[in-house]
Design goal:
single chain
């Protein structure tokens, strides 16, 4: 699995649904107050607890649309559920995620968040 993050972000920006997500000033303030290391830790926790293991009964419902900047990023980057991961990145739904896939997802989420924060300056 090899994706160029910049190309992926460009493709996501062309999707009407994916491009409709953005951070609020409150989200950006939260990121700035917590710091990037904490946000990365939260992202890892969310990905591991919501996506790594197969739970197709909850698929599509495991990631809220608000409540944390990472949740918004997960929807914006199509990393919110196994169905979206399969549709956008061809990651199979019928097995647990591997380390390479987890690293890709986390890199994509953080890159999207950093772009959002930088665009707000």
């Amino acid at each position: 699995m090899k994706y160029d993050i910049e190309i992926v972000l460009k493709k996501l920006s062309l999707s009407k649904f994916r491009s409709s997500f953005s951070l609020t000033s409150k989200d950006i303030e939260y990121i700035n107050n917590k710091g990037w290391e904490t946000i990365k830790s939260h992202a890892a926790d969310f990905v591991i607890s919501r996506l790594v293991k197969i739970d197709l009964k909850k698929d599509g419902k495991q990631t809220p649309f608000r409540g944390h900047p990472v949740f918004i990023a997960m929807h914006a980057t199509a990393t919110c559920c196994r169905r979206c991961l399969n549709k956008w990145y061809k990651i199979p739904k019928d097995r647990d995620l591997n380390n390479q896939e987890i690293k890709f997802i986390l890199t994509l989420i953080i890159k999207w968040l950093k772009k959002e924060v930088n665009n707000s300056l």
